[in-house]
Design a protein that fits this description.
Helix 4 packs across helix 6 and helix 5 packs across helix 11. The termini are far apart. The protein folds into three domains: 87 residues, Udp-n-acetylmuramoylalanyl-d-glutamate--2,6- Diaminopimelate Ligase, Chain: A, domain 1, CATH 3.40.1390.10; 208 residues, 3-Layer(aba) Sandwich (UDP-N-acetylmuramoyl-L-alanine:D-glutamate ligase), CATH 3.40.1190.10; 134 residues, Protein-Tyrosine Phosphatase, Chain A, CATH 3.90.190. It is of the alpha/beta class and 464 residues long.
């Protein structure tokens, strides 16, 4: 039985039951009144800005079977909703983690946990696309990969779920440990070890240590799948778990050969059980080849037919604002500003370099949470601008000035460095022309959606 018994929920919550309600079981939970369904149990997350009581009332009006909350519920709401389960708890985050951990035990299904310094979300989405060729799949929505998002993901599963893909992010030690012990994966994927959050963890070796916390919750008979071209993962050996590797440059279980990359997609050959197959990846960039190899490894581990795996990769759709290529108003735009690290910057610049355009323009913003490594890593991005022969560089932010400085030193002639998006738009107004391809890449907090919106609304004339 995959539904949760109300008595068990009450026991786990260790809170005050303000109303017992009529329900005996709960199927699914929801924390967003915009998408809440009839008979969901509403999770009322504490927030300084949200009107919690208002959302509880809205959830009840939309048919929620009850709610779990930290808020003090007015007596009139309790009296009016005696048919609802209403539980008040001391710590809502701790409570949903405990409920999610218990709910996971009700599902005897394959659960793939995905972590890594870059590419987690796109790898998660591609794995889910492959698994959906055989299973009814639940996956982390968007970037819902933290101490709140992971338990809410599991709590959203209904009785029809046959497999799940759960993304796990972290900024510090101990965070993935919490997530993996809730999700209890059967397969653990590590995409790479780069420099994201190196300011918090101090070294790439420490980042590896933090990512390997994913194994703490892995099923005893579980499998670990690793990118064998990553220098730190390449040397990692596990005596406890079955290890599967994928790569392009190093000998691995799954290797891409005869790679052909164009500006919108790529294809390659792979040898599986002494037979070659052609894999078509519908997104540009070498990093998506790695994502597809990982998806093949997961699919084969779960006994999905290779033809279905290939079909799942072909049907993959990338999450918005990650390597999203648009042709609009006589220009091309690469929107890739959900997050940024040196590794993802490098990959995006390489994509830009392969695009067919009159001029290749990079608009790059600050990479955050790099601490003492900030200048060094921003300068490394400047070297990638020069190496990939990008025609025009704009940088936005105090750290991105190092990108501009390094690019100038290496001979990039047209470089503009500003402090704000508004200044950047004013500069671009005079410079961007019809036929250009513009890459927008920065950490999410840089709000590059403002620049993207302007580009999509402006009409560009032919370059002189």
């Amino acid at each position: 039985m995959k539904n949760m018994v109300v008595d068990k929920i009450v026991e786990i919550c260790e809170g005050t039951v303000l109303s017992r309600g009529r329900a005996s079981t709960i199927k699914t939970f929801c924390s967003d009144t915009r998408v809440i369904k009839n008979k969901d149990l509403f999770i009322s997350l504490k927030s300084e800005t949200n009107d919690g009581i208002k959302y509880i009332k809205e959830a009840f009006e939309k048919g929620a079977i009850g709610c779990i909350t930290e808020y003090n519920i007015p007596e009139e709401i309790i009296e009016k909703n005696k048919d609802k389960l209403i539980i008040q708890v001391k710590d809502i985050i701790d409570t949903i983690q405990k409920i999610a951990k218990y709910k996971r035990t009700l599902f005897n299904i394959p659960v793939v946990a995905v972590t890594g310094s870059v590419g987690k979300t796109s790898t998660k989405d591609m794995i889910a696309s492959v698994l959906s060729q055989k299973y009814i799949v639940a996956k982390t929505q968007g970037n819902y990969n933290n101490h709140i998002g992971v338990p809410l993901t599991i709590l959203s599963w209904d009785e029809n779920v046959e497999a799940a893909v759960v993304e796990m992010g972290m900024n510090h030690f101990g965070e993935i440990s919490i997530l993996t012990n809730i999700a209890k994966p059967t397969i653990a994927v590590i995409t790479n070890i780069g420099t994201a959050h190196i300011g918090n963890l101090g070294s790439r070796e420490n980042i590896l240590k933090a990512k390997l916390e994913i194994l703490e919750g892995l099923n005893e008979e579980g499998t670990i799948i690793l990118n064998n071209d990553n220098d730190l993962l390449n040397t990692y050996n596990s005596e406890k778990y079955k290890k599967i590797t994928y790569g392009i440059n190093n000998k691995s279980n799954y290797v891409a050969e005869e790679i052909i990359v164009d500006e919108m997609s790529s294809e390659y050959k792979i040898n599986i059980n002494n037979k070659k197959y052609k894999i078509e990846v519908p997104v540009a960039g070498e990093h998506f080849i790695y994502n597809s190899l990982c998806s093949i490894a997961v699919g084969m581990e779960l006994n999905i037919e290779i033809d279905k795996i290939i079909e799942g990769i072909k049907k993959f759709e990338n999450t918005g604002k990650r390597n999203e290529i648009q042709e609009v108003n006589n220009i091309k735009i690469i929107n890739d500003f959900y997050n940024a690290s040196y590794d993802s910057m490098k990959a995006s610049i390489e994509v830009l370099s392969k695009i067919s355009a009159k001029r290749k323009v990079a608009v790059l913003g600050d990479m955050l949470e790099l601490g003492e490594f900030s200048e060094e890593l921003h300068r490394k991005v400047g070297r990638e601008i020069s190496k990939n022969k990008i025609n025009i560089l704009f940088t936005v932010g105090k750290f991105a000035k190092y990108i501009a400085d390094e690019a100038k030193i290496l001979g990039v002639k047209e470089v503009y460095s500003v402090d704000t998006n508004e200044e950047c738009i004013r500069k671009m107004q005079k410079i961007v022309k019809k036929g250009d391809c513009i890459l927008l890449k920065a950490s999410n907090r840089m709000k590059f959606n403002q620049i993207s919106k302007w580009l999509q609304e402006k009409k560009f004339e032919k370059a002189e």
